[in-house]
């Protein structure tokens, strides 16, 4: 379930946004509409943080940026105005924010969203921005279907669906479900991560990206980490970091 908060004092516009959202995101969604800054502030204090916030910049109760002067919010935020639309991800932990004009190609936007720890947020926010601005119709993102690996003097393709996990130990490696291991020359794990379907692959820690179908069992650890044991013949053990553990459980249990 993806929770979306709309803060807009124009009720007709807010309802229109809600209808657009319903046809944009494949996952189950819950949308809350609030008409002003003070109401939104009180709501955020009493409820768990939503996955995405859509806010009109200029409200009758003030400028929406004022909401975050004394309130810590870490989820992606899409700000809207009557003249244009601006995607804005606030990272209140470091008091920094990043702006991207709607429709402008940028590599920073998805990377920044990735740092929030949820790929669902990344693709939901991207699709919402495209649809709300009317720049594009929602479309299914395309992901890499195969990787080329070097074996002796040959290059051979490995279908992405056959890959159990990717690891990084000085070099990048991929492991297939059958237990084969190949060196992969594709930059960093961050580069590889962007090419994968987040519904199937998860970045468990800095060294490992795992396929959901490769997970044989899970064990909670005392330090709030999660230990993943991959299926035969791999039998690899993969730690999910304490910071990523809550997001992993939500990603896996869907």
From TrEMBL:
Coiled coil: none
Residue ranges of every copy of the HTH LytTR-type domain listed in the record: 173-254
GO molecular function, one term: phosphorelay response regulator activity
PROSITE patterns found in the cross-reference section: HTH_LYTTR (PS50930)
Protein name as annotated: Two component transcriptional regulator, LytTR family
Species: Hydrobacter penzbergensis
